[in-house]
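We close this part of the discussion by returning to an individual protein. The sequence in question and its structure tokens are set out directly beneath this paragraph:
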Amino acid sequence: MTQFSQRIIDWQKLHGRHDLPWQNTIDPYAIWVSEIMLQQTQVTAVIGYYAKFMQRFPSIKILAAATQEEVLQYWSGLGYYSRARNLHAAAQKIMDDFNGVFPSHFDDIQSLSGIGRSTAAAISTFALNLPQPILDGNVKRVFARHFNVSGYTGAPKVAQQLWQIAERENPNDANKESDAIAYTQGLMDLGATLCTRTKPRCTICPVNHSCEALALNLVKSLPTPKPRKTIPEKSVTMLVLIHQNTVMLEKRPPSGIWGGLWSLPEVTEGANIDGVTLQNSSALKPLTHVFTHFKLHITPQLIYIDQLIPQVNQAVKIWLPLEEAIAAAIPTPIRTILMSINALTNKNA
């Protein structure tokens, strides 16, 4: 056990987080769901979704038996929807290949969709008493600062260097399970509460005496930011087709952005859908949604129609009451649009 590791363990036991919904359990399913939700999402945003998701899908068997659409519905608003699709697919694989029991071998855990090395390590450490080094975003920041590792942490050479640190510092004595858990949780807690991206609280950090970035006045410059690239921008017009307080939703392809979710029909200028043109529409307030790799500018066009457009394939296009549509598996910006329409409808009622 290194001095760094021991200080992290001692600090976590006294000052770390101990009452999160997915803590104080060794159920690998509960821990797995939480780790997937926590990928690229802050704890405060995850807690509410986690409670509802676990209430509806309390076991691997129940999750595997659900439809992808229902899983997406309970994920709706959390973002990065490939995580939900991978979680669902992995649950089905566990039922088929592991007799419904979450795998206990590290390589088998990594074979599941959506689980990389760090996520598999967290599950292995927290649930299976098999300590493995982790390296999520928060931990990368802690290591980069404390051990003065420059360079973008997503670059292969830099990532390799950080993994070497993770392996070196990780307590791997299975006889001290509480220490391994405290260390792993402590790294997460340190990055989330003290060694934050902005305004780090270095004066109360348990390892500030040995932090190289602090000693060299490099805390603000580490970790090295990702090289900036021009973010592509895309504009799209969406039709909000309303008939007697119902709205048409269109299912998106299974892959790509918002894969498998219900959304609003998209059109290009001058085009039409099912005979409805933009000439009959009124523009709503535009909004912008930022993805990891591009910005999407959405111009909603509100169209009230007198006659319901018949839909041949309800697996692709459906009409739903507004309130029901708002609760469906839809992306956040689409929910924002529909909520504004619903508020307007109720106001004019």
